UniProtKB/TrEMBL annotation:
Catalysed transformations (reactions): (6R)-5,10-methenyltetrahydrofolate + H2O = (6R)-10-formyltetrahydrofolate + H(+); (6R)-5,10-methylene-5,6,7,8-tetrahydrofolate + NADP(+) = (6R)-5,10-methenyltetrahydrofolate + NADPH
Gene Ontology cellular component annotations, sorted alphabetically: cytosol
Residue sites binding NADP(+) per the record: 162-164
GO molecular function annotations of the record: methenyltetrahydrofolate cyclohydrolase activity; methylenetetrahydrofolate dehydrogenase (NADP+) activity
Name of this chain's protein: Bifunctional protein FolD
Length: 275
């Protein structure tokens, strides 16, 4: 068996052409506002990648950079200003923010109609209940990737390793809505290898390099790695998988490009709904 490569980079490029055509039909160019608090170089790189993607599809972007000393109240005021700006269709608050800031309060202050990164509590609740809402960008991108490659989800056992509110939990909810039987594993899970060994679909969303060992994963599984670490490592050890599993996302080039694509796509959808 040779694993099918779930090529997020190629799919994102293909989808950008379609998104550009939709942008061209709008009278007013959609604008994504990005908020970066502090000077973390990795966060700055991620924000710039999202700005670049906006440019490729003809969307506008507004970069808001705040000092690392910013308070919760100051950040809330910035978000409120963007909520009330009719030109802004989407708001992205880059995670993480400095420790003195109440990140959850700031996420939840984003207008749900502009929550294109899917980070608000209200948006999560609506998505989990199967109602219209913008999904968290990484899980939404993964679902688009799986659909494009015709990966069967209904009736399958999916194991999501990680329970963060913007990745693991929404990923599990989306898979459940797609009729998977879902197990969520985390730092307190006992017999992690055994749990993963029963999975038809494994999603690595734990944020630790190669925590999930290749020999834990059964033959024929679908492997989705949402991690990225120095040296091109993911959350899942890949050695030996390519000849055993049904499908696998590369690192890099799998989930990452689809995260950005989902963000841009949802910003455009917001613009179309607000038009």
């Amino acid at each position: 068996m040779t694993a099918q490569i779930l090529d997020g980079k190629a799919l994102a490029k293909q989808r950008e052409q379609m998104l550009k055509q939709r942008v061209d039909l709008l009278e007013q160019k959609p604008v994504l506002a990005t908020i970066l608090v502090g000077d973390d170089p990795s966060s700055a790189t991620y924000v710039q990648m999202k700005i670049n993607a906006c440019g490729r599809v003809g969307m506008g972007s507004r970069s808001v950079e705040l000092p690392s000393t910013t308070t919760t109240e100051q950040l809330l005021a910035t978000i409120d200003e963007l909520n009330n700006d009719s030109q802004v269709c989407g708001i992205l608050l880059q995670h993480p923010v400095p420790p003195q800031i109440d990140e959850r309060a700031c996420f939840d202050a984003i207008d749900i109609t502009k929550d294109v990164d899917g980070v608000t509590t209200q948006g999560f609740g609506r998505m989990a209940m199967g109602e219209q809402a913008f999904g968290s960008a990484t899980p939404a991108g993964i679902m688009t990737l799986l659909k494009h490659y015709d990966i069967q989800l209904s009736g399958k056992h999916a194991v999501v390793v990680g329970r963060s509110p913007i990745l693991g939990k929404p990923m599990a909810a989306m898979l459940l809505n797609a009729n998977c039987t879902v197990t969520i594993c985390h730092s307190r899970t006992e017999d992690l290898a055994d749990q993963i060994g029963r999975a038809d679909i494994v999603v690595g969303a734990v944020g630790k390099p190669e925590l999930i060992r290749a020999d834990w994963i059964k033959d024929g599984a679908v492997v989705v790695d949402a991690g990225y670490h120095q040296g091109g490592l993911g959350d899942i050890e890949k050695d030996g998988l390519e000849n055993r599993v049904a499908a696998v996302t590369p690192v890099p080039g799998g989930v990452g490009p689809m995260t950005i694509n989902a963000l841009i796509s949802q910003t455009l959808e917001s613009a179309e709904l607000l038009a």
